[in-house]
Amino acid sequence: MESKGRIFSGVKPTGKLHLGHYIGILLNWEKLQYEYDCIFSVVDLHALTDPVKVKDNLQENIYHVLAMFIACGIDPLKAHIMLQSENSDHAFLSWILQNYIGYGQVKRMTQFKDQYQKHNVTNGLFNYPILMAADILLYDCAYVPVGIDQKQHLELARDMVDRFNSIYGQQGFKSPSPLINKVGSKVKLLSDPSKKMSKSDNNEKGIIFLLDKKEDVISKISRAVTDGENKIKYDEANKPGVSNLMQIYSSIGEIEISEIEKKYENLSYQDFKKDLIDIVWNRLDKIQNKYYSIIDDKEYLNSVLDSGLEYSLFLSNKKVEEIKKIIGLKRLN
Ligand code: TYM
Fold it and tell me: What average pLDDT does the segment 212-239 reach?
């Protein structure tokens, strides 16, 4: 079957992956790989934007994320999986691209502003969305499947494309479109549904990790915050806890939210949670079986990265040459 276009997306190796990653992106990637030319990346250079956090386990986290991609259904014979730092075209293009966007515009990125308010941030964190734009623009991607929190970064990348193309009067870069799930683009903490499920959050009780044991899944879902109404109804504003659990149910169980409402019309939160535990655990059990069967096979995992790197270099070298020529960075023959 002919591919419908190219896709790039990535995950930072900064900790153990959780249900937010699975529902927000990995489930979708698995489906997309059959129709698109996909490049999925372990974005280790992005992880470096918080060097203190990653200093002791970056390598371990890289293999964790790589093995998780495969365990969650990414087939390295269909999709290409690459390690960002192994292809230096990413960092090179990022330097180029920062000249095609205003400082004020980068400063307005909400993810940066949030972090800036909480603690000392590195200059790398400021430049994070520029490297992300380079990841995407290097491959002429049509689509970028991400969680909703990354939408603003993609808008920045699109602005860079417009600016670059208008300065040189040529279509040097292609504008990428975000692919964001209707359901599950922002999975919330089970313990506090006002916040995104995030590995930077210290509240582990609210996070279901993909490697959690069955008893942890049972306890985290049983204790998930709901409300006093005991009615399975989707209402993000007034019933954020239940709505979040319904999104999880709908994504993994492949059932519409309205169908869930019908199914549990006369049932309690307890009944609903019991079924949700089964759905989530059945999926995690499968993922974990695959994960543990490959995580120690470094030869296999390295071979996946080798072929991903080869493919990515094949495309990115050509793009870099094309861009250098447009800008005037190439020597005359
Ligand atoms: P990272 O590792 O923080 O997140 C990886 C992806 O997972 C999504 N995600 C979620 N989706 C739904 N609910 C959640 N609770 C949740 N938590 C995380 C994120 O939206 C993201 O799509 N900047 C990217 C990494 C990156 C990238 C790229 C992505 C670097 N270069 C190029 C696409 C294209 C990030 O947020 O990583």
Answer: 97
